[in-house]
Amino acid sequence: MTQTAIYPGTFDPITNGHTDLIQRASRLFDKVIVAIAAHSGKQPAFELQERIALAEQVLADMDKVEICGFDTLLVDFARQKRADVILRGLRAVSDFEYEFQLTGMNRKLAPQIETLFLMPAEQYTYISSSLVKEVGRLGGDVSGFVHEAVFRALRNKLAIK
């Protein structure tokens, strides 16, 4: 039986922390679906198709990874993709309360789908897409936090140096 994990998020943009979690998950599961949310209540810097294209470039060498956009309830999308597990990343204790709420709701809506939390490597625990965009907008060097293709896209999108 194939074990499939779905890793949802806005990935606006995909960071080295995201990539680290995806690499870890691909060692644990037969298939990892990176599910990029079209509507998250956030105002993304990149359109959905841009976020998908960037993820495809960053994750191109990972055979077990599929990248999809979605605009439905996560558990419905997970069922559609026959995912057994929802993968979530925890960077710090501050992430836990929000993730705990999401997990409770998802468990109520789809009790057959488990949630698994993974922590990124220590060097990525402080990286978030929001911080990368903010530091980039303010002129900071974000090249160490994202793949080269993402850095180029950020430079063009945010007019950073």
UniProtKB/TrEMBL annotation:
Give compartment(s).
Cytoplasm
As recorded in UniProt, its EC number(s) are 2.7.7.3
Superkingdom of the source species = Bacteria
The site annotation (Transition state stabilizer) covers: H18
GO CC, sorted alphabetically, is: cytoplasm
Q: Show the CDD domains listed in the entry.
A: PPAT (cd02163)
Q: Name one Pfam family in it.
A: CTP_transf_like
Q: Which InterPro entries match?
A: Cyt_trans-like, PPAT, Rossmann-like_a/b/a_fold
Its catalytic activity? Answer: (R)-4'-phosphopantetheine + ATP + H(+) = 3'-dephospho-CoA + diphosphate
Named cofactor requirement(s)? Mg(2+)
| Pathway it works in | Cofactor biosynthesis; coenzyme A biosynthesis; CoA from (R)-pantothenate: step 4/5
Q: Keyword Endoplasmic reticulum: yes or no?
A: no
**GO biological process terms, semicolon-separated:** coenzyme A biosynthetic process
MF (Gene Ontology): ATP binding; pantetheine-phosphate adenylyltransferase activity
Q: Where does substrate bind?
A: T10, K42, L74, R88
Residue positions annotated to bind ATP are: T10, F11, H18, G89, L90, R91, E99, Y124, T125, Y126, I127, S128, S129, S130
Q: What class of enzyme is it?
A: transferase
Domain Cytidyltransferase-like, chain residue ranges per copy: 6-134
Protein known as: Phosphopantetheine adenylyltransferase
